[in-house]
TrEMBL record:
SMART domains: WD40. This is Dynein axonemal assembly factor 10. It comes from the Eukaryota. The keyword Cytoplasm applies. Key assembly factor specifically required for the stability of axonemal dynein heavy chains in cytoplasm. It is found in: Dynein axonemal particle. PROSITE patterns: WD_REPEATS_2. Keywords: Apoptosis, Cytoplasm, Repeat, WD repeat. InterPro entries: WD40/YVTN_repeat-like_dom_sf, WD40_repeat_dom_sf, WD40_rpt. GO terms for cellular component: dynein axonemal particle. WD repeats lie at residues 133-146. GO terms for biological process: apoptotic process.
Length: 358
């Protein structure tokens, strides 16, 4: 039997109380700094930059913005620039140079309502093709933006005339393994998950997981689609094997009831795509490892390939707060380092140990 100390441990290294509601926190690539995004009680937005020094998080910059900021991504920026793209409560998409964050370097009115979720690809050396940003909004639309092109999205996925607009809670890029292929996955408040193929501008696959979809993420953006995790309101998450798509059955999946409350986020470890962390509404984190089946696909009675789902093992869990942990981001550079923030107005830097033996 392995001793408990041989398992990965989740250690709260730094805790910092904030004087505002924090919605998102992100590591700045190639640095010991992170960004916090949120809103002050007076209704304005805030962007803060912290640097980890001598076991403390030092505030090095704070900028107040007109509208509360909901989400951010570095995914469409170069490693040299490291500009952050943000979505706000007024439907705006802004890109900020963190060296001079007073005026955005790019701005567009992306949506009629709040931007709930944002993701980027084609920057940071991750994913082939153009640098692009995807936004998902309460107005029911999912739009893809190229920062080199002003005001018009390069793709707009919206409900057809007469169809009910569903609140889009989460978006993620995937399948960007060459210059032509790219997918966007979107999750909605009614449990719908839709996979859009940007190369063919078509809906490639859809399913419904019976509960509002809080977060979707591919295990890697820059490979031929491998796995997709979707988390939901009732404490359940689903892992879809996206390598094999059956013409009628779609993707094989395994689901796990993990948290007692909403699972707000899932984030895959940058250094190992089979390890991921889920962040829950009861202030807890769960660290998981996906185990592949002996065979990932088999033939059905018609001779078509059908996927075989694997299993998930819980490696570790930790309770950090009594309030939901709404954002989580692994450091792309240092394995096991992550930042998370919650509705207790606290940002935490965590160290997760022994990930290489998990």
């Amino acid at each position: 039997m392995s001793s408990p100390l041989s398992k990965p441990q989740i250690i709260a290294h730094i805790q910092k109380s904030l004087n505002y509601t924090v919605f998102d926190s992100k590591w700045i690539p190639c640095s010991a700094k992170f960004v916090c995004l949120g809103n002050f009680a007076r209704g304005t937005g805030v962007l803060q930059i912290y640097e980890v020094q001598h076991g403390e998080a030092q505030l090095i910059k704070e900028v107040e913005k007109a509208k509360p900021i909901k989400c951010g991504t570095f995914g469409a920026s170069s490693l040299q620039q490291r500009h952050i793209a943000t979505g706000d409560f007024d439907g705006n998409l802004h890109i900020w140079n963190l060296e001079a964050p007073d005026v955005p370097v790019y701005t567009t009115k992306a949506h009629k309502e709040i931007v709930n979720s944002i993701d980027g690809v084609g920057g940071l050396g991750i994913g082939d093709g153009a640098p692009e940003i995807v936004t998902g909004s309460r107005d029911g639309t999912v739009k893809v933006w190229d920062p080199r092109q002003k005001d018009l999205p390069v793709a707009n996925m919206e409900p057809v005339e007469g169809e009910t607009k569903r609140d889009c809670w989460t978006v993620a890029f995937g399948n960007a393994f060459n210059d032509q292929d790219r997918c966007v996955c979107a999750g909605y408040d009614n449990g719908d998950i839709k996979l859009f193929d940007l190369r063919n501008m078509s809906l490639r696959w859809e399913t419904n997981i019976k509960n509002g979809v809080c977060c979707v993420e591919f295990d890697r953006k820059d490979i031929n689609m491998n796995k997709l995790v979707a988390t939901s309101l009732e404490g359940k998450f689903h892992v879809f094997d996206t390598r094999t798509q059956h013409p009628t059955k779609g993707f094989a999946s395994v689901s796990e009831k993990a948290h007692k409350a909403t699972i707000w986020q899932v984030r895959h470890l940058p250094q190992n795509r089979d390890i991921f962390m889920t962040a829950g509404g009861a202030g807890n984190l769960h660290l998981w490892k996906y185990e592949y089946p002996a065979q990932r696909s088999k033939k059905d009675s018609d001779g078509a390939d059908v996927g075989v789902a694997g299993s998930v093992n819980l490696l570790q869990n930790a309770t950090l707060s009594t309030q939901p942990i709404a954002s989580l981001d692994w450091s792309p550079d240092k394995q096991g380092l992550c930042v998370c923030s919650g509705f207790d107005q606290t940002v935490r830097v965590l160290i997760v140990t022994k990930l290489n033996v998990a």
